[in-house]
Design goal:
The complex is a heterodimer of chains A (116) and B (110). By secondary structure, chain A is mostly beta strands. Helices cover 0% and strands 53% of the residues of chain A. Chain A contains no helices and eleven strands. In chain A, the strands form two sheets. In chain A, strands 2, 4, 5, 6, 9, 10 and 11 form a seven-stranded mixed β-sheet that branches. With 110 residues, chain B is mainly β. Chain B contains no helices and eleven strands. In chain B, a hairpin with a 6-residue loop joins strand 5 and strand 6. The radius of gyration of chain B is 13 Å and the shape is globular. Chain B starts with a strand and ends with a strand. The chains are: A mainly beta (116), B mainly beta (110). At the A-B interface, strand 5, strand 9 and strand 10 of A face strand 6 and strand 10 of B.
């Protein structure tokens, strides 16, 4: 149980276009989801905290107009990278607070974004 | 600000040797500490958390508030323990968000 999926697993887009990444909790309802970014051989950097039905809370230095987060239901959160540039190329990972304990997070497999 | 430090990028040991992955944190209040593990080509998963005081796959970790540490230990390493290990901190008022350390790669050689 407590499985989180992400779609797509890999995406390549051209500079200037937008790309949407979906994060789903498959077998539980997640009131809170988190979006991370991971650079090669580096740790996870929290980008934002997403609560169902409310605006996401962004970490300092993360552009909210560039990384649009929507958490419209208890099982789905989306991250849209708008007007993508090569420097946005990264590994994006989402997680969801677990069904039993709110402090436990279950992670998705990640999405590799390459902007050409 | 809250911070997690993992001083070693790589820890290389032989099978059967003891393992200690270091983690220090910076937080003035009472933190929740976790160890997450990422095996090759797999997603991040929770290994253990300090409040449960349990042993998972032979690993243990004790929170030392005096030294602000939460080192991960295993007396006899196995090859299947090879993975990336991340120490993480959650704190009151942080809405359950996690602050991750840089991670330590554990390589267990036969």
């Amino acid at each position: 149980g407590a499985v989180v999926s992400q779609h797509p697993s890999r995406v390549i887009c051209k500079s200037g276009t937008s790309v949407k990444i979906e994060c789903r909790s498959l077998d539980f309802q997640a009131t809170t989801m988190f979006w991370y970014r991971q650079f090669p051989k580096q740790s996870l950097m929290l980008m934002a905290t997403s609560n169902e039905g409310s605006k996401a809370t962004y970490e300092q230095g993360v552009e909210k107009d560039k990384f649009l987060i929507n958490h419209a239901s208890l099982t789905l959160s989306t991250l849209t990278v708008t007007s993508a540039h090569p420097e946005d190329s990264s590994f994006y990972i989402c997680s969801a607070s677990g069904p039993v304990s709110s402090y436990e997070q279950y992670f998705g497999p990640g999405t590799r974004l390459t902007v050409t | 600000a809250q911070r997690v430090t993992q001083p070693e990028k790589l820890l290389s040991v032989f099978k059967g040797a003891p393992v200690e992955l270091k983690c220090n944190y910076s937080y003035s209040g009472s933190p929740e500490l976790f160890w997450y593990v990422q095996y090759s080509r797999q997603r991040l998963q929770l290994l253990l958390r300090h409040i449960s005081r349990e042993s998972i796959k032979g690993f243990t970790a004790d929170l030392n508030k005096g030294e602000t540490s939460f080192h991960l230990k295993k007396p006899f390493a196995q090859e299947e323990d090879s993975a990336m290990y991340y120490c993480a901190l959650s704190f009151s008022g942080g809405y359950n968000k996690l602050i991750f350390g840089a991670g330590t790669r554990l390589a267990v050689h036969p």
